[in-house]
Amino acid sequence: MVYPIVKFGNPVLETEAADVTEFDTPELHQFLEDMFESMYAAKGVGLAAPQIGVAKKIAVIDCSNQERPEDKIVIINPKIVHTEGKQVGEEGCLSIPGFREQVRRAKRVTVRAQNAKGEEFEMTGEDLLARAFLHETEHLYGRLYISHISALKRDLMKRKIKKLQRAGEWG
Ligand code: ZN
User: Fold this and answer.
1) Which residue out of 33, 90, 136, 138 is catalytically annotated?
2) 94 contacts 5 by C-beta, under 8 angstroms
3) Measuring CA to CA, which residue among 169, 165, 108, 112 is closest to residue 137?
4) Residue 95 CA to ligand 1 centre (angstroms)
5) From ligand 1's centre to the CA of 128, what distance in Å?
6) pLDDT tens, 87-145?
């Protein structure tokens, strides 16, 4: 099923999610399928469980736009263990629709996480995948990409969002 995406302003987005302790259950496998379905429906390259209102450390990523099944990545209880280099590029978030900002990120990032079976693995990504690892892992710790932009830009964005909220145009 496709879950609605939780928007900025909901406290679940700014709270650390709980560690996952049970693996390989039918519920978890179903939930992961639903997460991919929800992410594709929203046309995102990554989705963290808090973005559909579930406060657990689970995220899914697919930088291929559904073109390569092997690019489907599940990261559970992820931690960033290595970063190097830098890249500057536009970043957005499904929970903050309509806004994009330039964000400086590491170019190469290694994440350590568990898969649906609970097996630990490490994976290194570059460019967009590196950005997705950072963006999604931060979500699971209650941090949004706008914490990386200037206070001035962030305040402006928040003011625009408040306006949309008042107009009833922000879910
Ligand atoms: Zn996001």
Assistant:
1) 136
2) yes
3) 112
4) 6
5) 13
6) 999 999 999 999 999 999 999 999 999 999 999 999 999 999 999 999 999 999 999 99
pLDDT of residue 40: 97
Distance CA 73, CA 82 (A): 18
* Pairwise CA distance, residues 16 & 26, whole Å: 25
SS3 165: helix
Q: Is 136 a catalytic residue?
A: yes
- Domains in the chain with CATH codes: 11-166 (3.90.45.10)
Question: Ion ligand 1 — residues with CB under 5 Å?
Answer: 93
